[in-house]
Design a protein that fits this description.
The protein is α+β, with helices and mostly antiparallel strands. The protein has one domain. Helix content is 62%, strand content 19%. It contains two helices and four strands; from the N terminus they run H-E-E-E-E-H. Strands 1-2 form a two-stranded antiparallel ribbon.
């Protein structure tokens, strides 16, 4: 009886220690990752990962889908930046021509 009591007390103490330790431990999220919560369950996924709910099943996009989607997004951003750079070059060229005209008067 005494052994059973000591065994139960030791399990209770161990459970309490593990619970306190788990709550006190901070989750370290690596750069480029994020924690998302779906129905009370936390998932550590790359930032921007899409997921789908089909009935009771949650599925995340695969690595290939994620990479293709991200590359397409970066291509769009790069094209927009290139367009903006060309506009800035034209403005700079016009400004330079104006300065040259003022200095050559």
């Amino acid at each position: 009886m005494r052994k059973t009591f000591l065994f139960l007390v030791s399990i209770l103490v161990l459970t309490a220690i593990l619970t306190i330790t788990a709550k006190a431990a901070e989750v370290i999220v690596a750069p480029g990752m994020e924690i998302i919560r779906i129905h009370g369950v936390e998932y550590l996924v790359p930032k921007g990962t899409k997921f789908r709910k089909r009935g009771g099943v949650i599925s995340f996009e695969g690595v290939d889908e994620y990479m293709v989607r991200r590359l397409v997004e970066y291509d769009k951003r790069l094209a927009a930046m290139e367009k903006e750079i060309e506009q800035l070059k034209r403005v700079l060229s016009e400004t330079q021509k104006g300065v040259d005209r003022l200095l050559n008067r």
